Amino acid sequence: MGIKSSVSLYSLQYQYLRGQMTLDDILKYVMVDLGADGIEILPDQMLHGTPAPSDETYAQWDALMEKYHPGLACDDIFLNTNLFKNRELTKRECVELIKKEIIMANRLGFKDIRLVSMVPAWILEPVLDTAAKYDVCLSIEIHGGLGFGVPKTEEYLAEMMRLDSPYIGIVPDTSCFCRRPPRVVDEYSMKVFGTNPDLVKYVNDVFASGRDTFHIKLANGGRDPEMEKYIKDPAKDMFYASNCDGYENCPLSVMDPYADKIRHFHFKCYEMTDEGVEYSMDYAEVIRYLHDHNYNGYVSTEYEGNRWVLPDHPIPELEQVAAHQKYVQKLIRDIEK
User: Fold this and answer.
1) What integer is the mean pLDDT of 304-321?
2) Which architecture, in CATH terms, is 4-177+258-336?
């Protein structure tokens, strides 16, 4: 089987947080109602006691796996270095924590772990034997604003290439490949914060020219002089100006040197339109890229438009995830014919 569809359960976090859906309900929705091939999970969010769940939690997980038989796309973990009020974790404690996460991933049935962006590269070599023992690959998320060319990301990529192990890879996120800024962010910022519409127009014009404001700032010591002309009221404008750093407009070719290291792919969704496509990203080009590079892993719907819903409006997680899965599954079917 080639490219497979999955859903990050993070996409349905408000349904879970507010008690509107249990983990059982969510798995039924994803696997039965939407017909996805698999799931991606943040254990910190939906499994009690991680990274060392109780036997009862494992038994509940096993029962759900037996009931729905989901493909297990990716286990998303964090290196929580701030567990104590008075200090950060030592390097040794960080290594031991990641080893626990590897063991848990193996017990849950996952072959792939997503390390959150900016996890330090030095963590890889000390945990590599454990990853091999438990047959779990560690892959850093390469996210918009933390993408290719960012020093911390480049350190990881260099260490990955040096170690050259099948147990180290990458998880690109399509926020690196936005062709337009998310419209829901534009609207939220203007209606909730009163952001200057001319600032929003400037950012959209930059994207339309094939660039992005993040890389303009990266090349100019953290500043975009042209953008600064449109920041009239910091209280209204700075949130939007800073948030735009999370969206990049990179060519897919930035992945070329690491294409064989792609273990999983986050298919970000900010807004599915009435036309059935995602507003900010061209998923057809991403699917084509993956197909042409013989990728045979999962691509996960990761809905993040939920954080940009206007006050007093319902959060359309179920509808947006369903529309995105329908779109992605069709693209996969069309290209895998």
Assistant:
1) 96
2) Alpha-Beta Barrel (3.20)
- What tokens does 278 get? 């995602």
How far apart CA 69 and CA 64 sit, in angstroms, is 8
Structure tokens at 115: 């390390």
**Helical ranges in the chain per DSSP H:** 13-17, 23-27, 43-46, 55-68, 91-108, 124-133, 151-163, 183-188, 197-208, 213-219, 225-228, 234-243, 283-292, 317-336
∠ CA 166-171-173, nearest 5°, is 165
Burial of 158 (0-12, 13-18, 19+ CB in 10 A): exposed
How far does Cα 142 stand from its chain's mean position?
A: 8
**pTM higher than the cut 0.70:** yes
Mean pLDDT, rounded, of the chain: 96
Token pair of 154, please? 């480049």
Cα–Cα separations (whole angstroms), residue 89 to 36, 79, 129: 38, 10, 21
Domain with CATH 3.20.20.150 in the chain: 4-177+258-336
User: Could you tell me how far CA 21 lies from the centroid of its own chain?
Assistant: 22
Q: Which residue has the tokens 């995602």?
A: 278
